[in-house]
Amino acid sequence: MEIAKSYITQCITQASENLRLDADKLNIVSLLKDEISNSPDLVNTLTEMKKLTETSKFAVKLSDLYNFITKDEINFKNISHTFSKQSSKLVDELNSILDHSTQHSFKKILNRLHHEEKTGLQTEEEQPEIYLGGESDSDKPEVSETTKLKEEFILENEDLNQKLSFSDYKERILKPIPSLDEFLNLVKNNKYNEEEMDDFIILMEFNTELSKNEEFDIITKMHMIFTSTLKLLKSHKMTPNSNLIEDMRACLIVIVAIIREKNVDITEFLVKAERLGNSIVNLNKG
User: Fold this and answer.
1) Would you say 5 and 37 are in contact if contact means Cβ atoms under 8 Å apart?
2) S-S: 55 plus which of 49, 126, 168, 225, CB 3.0-4.6 Å?
3) pLDDT at 163
4) Helix boundaries (H) for 135-266
5) How confident is the model at residue 66, as a pLDDT?
6) Which of 28, 9, 168 is nearest to 108 (CA)?
7) Euclidean distance between the first and final Cα of the chain, in Å?
């Protein structure tokens, strides 16, 4: 945990050195680093930071750093290059926080964070299973809601470059997942129609670009693999079967697990998704 705190605070320091900071902004950076260093539960702190509009996107980047230093196999030969690359990814979001905060207002943000941390520790009860739909079966939409999803997509599709809070991004990415999961059953049984498939292709292409703009690499890749498979199915260059559907569903599971920060091993699903991605590459080569 202490190594993770040290790595993250050093990345923040490196990122801040790429910005022109006055005394007030330097104090905000110091407050931010102190918050990380003094956190009794860093995972919980980052989780609660994601719930605050002012810090949500920055917290997602910090969570990536935490996962890298605690869960990934570190290549120490390239650690200097990796550190430089990761710290540079913090610059834009750090700059956004500094541009929209004063030392006084940032202290208020931290006070809200501390309140959320206490509340979260008292009430949070994480479910271990990964469910592709809503939080309960009653929330799971039917495939008949495809049209409704399309209408909402058209109405909300204004600007890909629009800055989203993590909670807004999470909602947009997760919303179509239950219907996509149900649609896979129709594809498996050859009971789908192409118009419905076109709707999902358009929707997933948008969410691919959205995830790319938010710099969520794995989620972007899962969307790309899923969308490419839909296109190949539509053109009849791929034939639906149980293995294919299982690999497509693995893409959805990876998306949900990352977005909802499920503390489970998703290696099996990543392998299936990568297998599908490789199949697509080989098919396009042919």
Assistant:
1) yes
2) 49
3) 59
4) 146-156, 166-174, 177-188, 194-213, 217-234, 242-259
5) 87
6) 28
7) 48
Contact 149, 175 (CB under 8 A): yes
The DSSP secondary structure of 117-133, one letter per residue, reads HHHHHHH-----S--SS
* Distance from C-alpha of 274 to C-alpha of 67, rounded to nearest angstrom: 20
pLDDT of 138-193, one tens digit each?
Answer: 444 444 445 555 455 444 544 445 556 788 888 889 999 999 999 999 999 888 88
- What is d(CA 54, CA 165) in angstroms, rounded to the nearest whole number? 8
Q: pLDDT value at position 72?
A: 59
**205-211 long-range Cβ contacts below 8 angstroms, 24+ apart:** 206/153, 206/157, 206/160, 207/172, 207/173, 207/176, 209/160, 210/160, 210/164, 210/169, 210/172, 210/173, 211/173
Instruction: Show the tokens assigned to 224.
Output: 């790309």
Residues of the chain with pLDDT under 70: 1, 72-76, 116-164, 263, 286
Q: 226, 252 in Cβ contact below 8 A?
A: yes
Which residue in the block uniquely carries the two structure tokens 């997933």? 204
| Domain at 137-285, CATH from 1.25.40, 1.10.8, 1.20.1530, 1.20.120 | 1.20.120
- Residue 153: what pLDDT? 47
DSSP codes, 74-118: P-GGGHHHHHHHHHHTTHHHHHHHHHT--HHHHHHHHHHHHHHHH
Q: Any idea where the domains of the chain sit in the sequence? A: 2-123, 137-285
